[in-house]
# Entry
Amino acid sequence: MGEPAYNSTELLICIAARQMPDSVTAFIGTGIPMLAASLAQKMHAPNLVPVFEFGGTGAQLKKLPRAVGESRTFYRGVAASGICDIMETAARGFVDYGFLGGAQIDPYGNLNSTIIGPQHHPPKVRLPGSGGANDVGSLCWRNIIIIRHDKRRFVPQVDFLTTPGYLTGPGAREDAGLPPDSGPYRVVSTLALLDFEQDTKRMRLLATNPGVTVKQVIENTGFELVVPDRVGQNEPPSAEELRILREEVDPERFYI
Amino acid sequence: MGEPAYNSTELLICIAARQMPDSVTAFIGTGIPMLAASLAQKMHAPNLVPVFEFGGTGAQLKKLPRAVGESRTFYRGVAASGICDIMETAARGFVDYGFLGGAQIDPYGNLNSTIIGPQHHPPKVRLPGSGGANDVGSLCWRNIIIIRHDKRRFVPQVDFLTTPGYLTGPGAREDAGLPPDSGPYRVVSTLALLDFEQDTKRMRLLATNPGVTVKQVIENTGFELVVPDRVGQNEPPSAEELRILREEVDPERFYI
Amino acid sequence: MNVIESGLGELTQPLDIDEFRRWNREKSRVLVDKLMTEEEAVSRFVYDGCYLGTELYGTVRCPMTLVREVVRQGKKDLRLAGQGVTELDLLLAAGLVKTLDITYIGLEVFGTSRALRQAVESGQVEKVVEWSNGGITWRFKAASMGVPFIPVRSMLGTDTLRYSSAKVVECPFTGQKVCLIPALVLDVGLIHVHQADRYGNARIEGISGFAFEMSRASKRLIISAEEIVDTEEIRRYPDRTIIPYYLVDAVVHAPFGSHPGEMVYLYERDEEQLRGWVEASQTVEGTQAYLHKYVYGVADHEQYMDVVGRDRLASLKAAVEGR
Amino acid sequence: MNVIESGLGELTQPLDIDEFRRWNREKSRVLVDKLMTEEEAVSRFVYDGCYLGTELYGTVRCPMTLVREVVRQGKKDLRLAGQGVTELDLLLAAGLVKTLDITYIGLEVFGTSRALRQAVESGQVEKVVEWSNGGITWRFKAASMGVPFIPVRSMLGTDTLRYSSAKVVECPFTGQKVCLIPALVLDVGLIHVHQADRYGNARIEGISGFAFEMSRASKRLIISAEEIVDTEEIRRYPDRTIIPYYLVDAVVHAPFGSHPGEMVYLYERDEEQLRGWVEASQTVEGTQAYLHKYVYGVADHEQYMDVVGRDRLASLKAAVEGR
# Structure
């Protein structure tokens, strides 16, 4: 038997899901994070507590939410409150994991989802804006960034710093007034899994995706990555992961 | 037919009730304010909206509350929220009238309900403390003070300024950061009805209670009152006021 | 107060809490019948150049009937507080927006908003001030508390703060840096709810988004409701009232008032029409055709429901999941 | 931040929001059974010298069963946040209070508190810091928001502020003076509710006082509940949960847990016993006799109900007004 076929979205979801341990709270945004959380809940993290921006806490993700405020974000949840309660719950340190995306990322995990180009207004390209991302990036303990991997996205400096990563490096978050010991934790890209080096807070290659070489990752990154001597390899989605993902997480094939 | 007999509490309640026009919101504390609000609602102010500190809004005061948080403070009300919502509603300028009491009052309507004596701790006499009074005195538009009238209570300077009146005089509230155009409106005492002179913000005699002379009021006040040339006379409780008060407002004679 | 950093963004709505107090002092405290049509509510209370806000977000409990009426009446030069999908997209597409306090305007899973890109990149929207979702809601929260600002630990260290009108100061108790978020008082707020009585006492089921804060941060508040209930029902369960009547200026009866979005426990969102908008909004012609079909070309919400189709609406109701 | 005035009162609980975050990070996120006796809850989570807070107020939904257990176990040197009638009066009368952030301790319509006078005037309570009711609740609110302070427009210009630990600063947006209220994080919070499941998801009917804010401002939270409900019920109506389980350390089943106070829709307050306390608390002997009869002399809440009398409790239930 060969390995099961899968697409790149499915791979991202599976790798993101594996980053979440059991028994944690996770701030879930639209799209891949929802699928990753749902998959994790059904695989290895039955006690994962999803928290949604506009008030849902502890939903049972039987059906996949299609938006951050919709009914399924609190379906059979333990609480349905409002955005202030959720953001302030994160401010008090109760939210372990957050998920982030963006159009650009820099070596310190800072993200841009606001504009492309040098000028704020009028901009060359207007993107949707921060949304809850800045709050998630500021207040959750560990953030997982999910992003397509190419040189246009992995840039030395973001055009606009929408959401804080480690800002300018070690100590910069704390200097800015952000809560200590928080920040980006992993980057799950279409090519690799990355984290941030303890001492420099710069992005570091942890493992490449199936069929991807270290060289390819470096070539598709617009800044110098920290590349340790030993780089791991991400396992492809297992048959079980794919079955649950396709049959239970997103049977309507809304996302995958 | 002579005038109906009444006691001093009944008189205070009736005079306080008359100060409240119809169609206003009023922040109601325990005791006489509750009876005054209920009497006003049943007499001339059917659209009076009582607001209670711990969350009750718009209750129909069919039965008299015995405490500021109890069931009757939101019985058939339009909303039952919490203390922050109520205090912040007052902060936003939605509460027209407030009621205050105290152990001491000074010429500017400042009140003391914290300690008696020169030293804060340990004090000669410890009183209950501000409670909601400071917030009411700070945030409501017009405050009605209900207080027993004697020289021990009407003092040149309060031992402890628990709740702001006009502080040190004209402009002082605004200088301190308190909302403009708010402050004490009337003093309903066991001897008289008083207000505050526009220019000096000092307490002024408006009308004496039945059987009380201007001289008696002056003699029982520990500071110089503003006494205009014409001082009115408060009407005693009418037969109708007394009937409603005794039969409908407090039939259990909990307070009167 | 020693300010360490000040956002470059302008306060597109002047900040004056005392003026807000004076305004609120004048609002009626009497229970009066405020039930009216969306046409009357919008023509009476929404005006050119006003600062407008909508709640909730995306495709969830948005005041779509009210927003369509604003577009129909062509209220222009609007200043907006922005987080939205279908509701703000309509206002942008119709060219009615002058300034934007933006946090997120996009089509969520369907991608970015063409309407936003066109309106902002062209400079048609004259000013854009950045916030996070938390930030903009905390602005409403500050106003709802009757204070000029509240401190938060978000937005710090970023361009989001730099292009906002927030400020950074040192906490006088702990010495830590905090971000101060200025209060935002809306000229007009639009909120769609599950139930309201004719005086404006309103209830919401499920998550409450930022209805509590925004209702209390609005000088004028228009409520649309799926159902008009008797005040007797309100008085039986006063703890379920999230918006008390005295905050409210108009009550509009609008079943399916969040369509094509959803209303929890009542109806599902209309995927087909949502996708229809995504597609239509890619071009000027498509946008105009959509607006004509669903907004300009229909007289009111009743006719809108006819155009959408009563059967289709019934099927959205039938699709609702239980509790 | 340029401070114009600083209250003289000490922060009787150190203010460290980052430490609160670290504490909360360690709290379990798992649904585990927390149902236990009041004896176990208090012995596990309340300790000598801890900073304790109770909700609601006066004779309304107070955690009397839990407070009686604290007195029974003689937890001492307590630091307290004070607004209360019967609940804090018991702690003061039993001589267990070391410092007091006070707003109001009195017997409402029954007058002043002898227990407070004795404990404070004698200097037995070592420190007293003044607040308004709004002020102390805003302290909880600041903590619940995860920020070191919030600005308010109360307490300004008074000795209440002077003897508080608030500060006055100039608003950097408007120039107006505002009072900054420092966050208060409780070591232990005690809250009595209508319903909770065994994990701690809790509901309150009627006014919610400051349960929302205080529950979120407590490092340890003990919930007592009139009724233990199934989690299925919680999940059917998630919008009725005011306190989610992860905030909670212990759930105690305590019907009549607010007695001699009231519980809206369930039972009326016990006038006779309340007056009994007012009278008893006038003398040392009376106080001791009362404490012996209702606290020291009974093993637990079940026995307390026996001493009060099941018939009397039933009559308080029968006296409840409808909705």
In short: Residues 147 and 249 of chain B are 21 Å apart (CA to CA).
